[in-house]
Amino acid sequence: MRDYSIGIDIGGTKIAGAIVDRQGNIIHKRICETPSESKERVLQVLANLVIEFHQLVEKENIRLVGIGVGSAGQINFNEGIILSGTDNIHGWYHVEVCDYLKQFTTLPIFLDNDVNTFTIAEYQLGSARGIENLVCLTLGTGIGGGVIAEGSMLRGEWGGAAELGHMSVNMYGPSCNCGSRGCLETYASGTGIANRMRERLQNNDSLADWEVALYRKNQRSITSKDVFEWKELGASIATEVAEEALQALAYGMMNMIHTFNPTAIILGGGLIDGNRDLVPAVQKRVSKLGMASLVQPVTIRSSSLGEDTGLIGAALQVWM
Ligand code: BMX
Ligand code: CA
Ligand code: ZN
């Protein structure tokens, strides 16, 4: 009998669940909408997934060995509690996920940050396979991080380590929802890039007519994709915003290299999946910064496992 585990990825808009083997093969997958109205409803969705997957494997004669859950936010890994997470779910703080799910299963349950699980997948199966000193960064709605140090996940005191999107690259920079200023996330996440673009548009009245026409879009619906497309067309403000994002990333990554002395940095998330050219552009900038002995040997690569990396990594926690 082969061993499988249940992986669950809790996102702000959808919850994905899967039965996964140790090689990252998914044999069953379910996607549910995240009920934003209450944490009780979200927990119910998680319980239903666990119950359904248990029923499925009974029929198929395969062995489940554990459950791994991933979620954005600050996770107490030791106690299996989401301390705070997405704003999309009403009341989504201090959620005792592991204790709750224990009512529905006798399997061991693990709960970790979404990008920590992404990091586990890249480390065990992806483009960072076997790299024992590794930094992963995802550029999406936010920016998340995960660090493997000397072959183990770096967790800190209770699991909150490696919130790399909230490394500040400018103490006078834009305020961040974490309470700080100039976090990497405020410059180089999808949300951050769109915010910086909007800000610049509001404060600029000396643009060429063609550029004004280009930006004639409902400002609220501007995305980071627009910004990179406008940059390609040579639009001045979009170019400034995209360059600033790359430069912020480069400085952030230099700080990470100085701090963790990694062999490689893996970049993933929606922004990278949609624009792989970002990786060499960042690599070029990083290589000009910081201490050469630390920075020069580091390779920067994009993730290789696709959109299910976080979900697969959630399941792989069981074998980490
Ligand atoms: C934020 C932070 C991280 C998370 C990262 C990526 C919250 C809710 N989120 O910096 O914990 O790993 O975003 O999240 O505090 P995503 O939503 O972009 O996947
Ligand atoms: Ca993390
Ligand atoms: Zn922040």
Briefly say what this structure is.
The protein is α/β, with parallel strands linked by helices and 320 residues long. It has helices at residues 39-60, 97-101, 114-124, 184-188, 190-202, 209-214, 224-232, 236-260, 270-273, 278-286, 292-295, 309-316; strands spanning 3-10, 14-21, 26-33, 63-71, 74-76, 81-84, 93-95, 109-113, 134-139, 143-149, 152-153, 264-268, 299-302.
Describe the structure.
With 320 residues, the protein is of the alpha/beta class. It has 2 domains: 3-125 and 308-319, ATPase, nucleotide binding domain (Nucleotidyltransferase, domain 5), CATH 3.30.420; 134-302, ATPase, nucleotide binding domain (Nucleotidyltransferase, domain 5), CATH 3.30.420. Helix content is 38%, strand content 22%. It has a 5-stranded mixed β-sheet, with helices on both faces. Strands 11-10-9-12-13 form a 5-stranded mixed β-sheet, sandwiched between helices. Strands 5-6-7 form a 3-stranded antiparallel β-sheet. Helix 3 (114-124) crosses helix 12 (309-316) and helix 8 crosses helix 10 (278-286). The mean pLDDT is 96. The structure holds 2-acetamido-2-deoxy-6-O-phosphono-alpha-D-mannopyranose, calcium ion and zinc ion. Residues 72-73, 85-86, 113-115, 138, 140-144, 163, 165-166, 185 line the site of 2-acetamido-2-deoxy-6-O-phosphono-alpha-D-mannopyranose (BMX).
